[in-house]
Amino acid sequence: MKPYLILLSASFLGLAACTQPAPPPQVQDPYANQGNGALYQGDLAGGTLSGEATAQYFNDQVGNTVLFAANQTTLSGDARAILARQAEWLNKHGNFSAVVQGHAEETGTREYNLALGARRASAVQEYLVAQGVSSDRVRTLSFGKERPAEICSNESCYAQNRRAVTVVSDTGTGT
Fold first, then answer.
1. Distance between CA atoms of 138 and 115, rounded to whole angstroms?
2. What residues does the OmpA-like domain cover (predicted)?
C-alpha cells in the first residue's frame, strides 16, 4: 500500500472520531400553550382517600391500648374515652374488623391470667358493641401473661402489662 493512502485513511478515521453525536430529538407538547393545565375527566373509584383509614392511624391517633387496675376488668374513665374513639373509628370505617387481645401481669398462675385476659378482652368487646360496632366485627383473644409489653418485676411494668390491645385489620368488605 502506498504511504499517502495510509495517511489519507488515518486522516478520515481521525475526523470520524471527532464528529459530534446526533442531538436528541425534540419533543413537542401539543397541550403546552392551552392554558388551564391538565384536567382529568375519567371516573374515580369510590372509597376513602384520607389517611385515617389505616391501621397505623388507628394505633397512633385513636389509641389501641387500654389499661386496667390489678386483678380488675372494670373500664376506667380513661379506658372508656379511648374505647369511644375506637368505636367511632370502627363505625366510620366498616371495612375493618378488630381482635381485642387481653393481657395480664406476670403475677398469678397461667390459668388465672388467661381467664383474666379473656375477661378484659370481653369487657372491651362489650363496650365497643354497646357503642354500635357490629359484634361480628370484633373478636377476642387472651394471651394472659404470655406476651408482656414490659419485662421486669416492679409495679410500673405490671401496670403496662394489665391491658387490652385492639388490633384492627382491613377485611375489604366495608359498607
1. 18
2. 56-172
pLDDT at 1 exceeding the cut of 80: no
Does 105 have pLDDT greater than 90?
yes
CB 171 within 8 A of CB 95: yes
User: Can you tell me the distance from the alpha carbon of 113 to that of 139, in angstroms, rounded to the nearest whole number?
Assistant: 19
Angle value at C-alpha 136, between 135 and 138, nearest 5 degrees: 65
Question: Which residues fall within 8 angstroms of residue 147, CB to CB, at 6 or more apart?
Answer: 101, 103
Measured CA distances, 165 to 22, 59, 124 (Å): 65, 10, 9
8-state DSSP, 140 = E
pTM to 2 decimal places: 0.70
Backbone φ, ψ for residue 101 (5° rounding): -100, 120
**Model confidence over 23-73: pLDDT tens digits?**
777 777 666 666 665 555 666 555 545 688 999 999 999 999 999 999 999
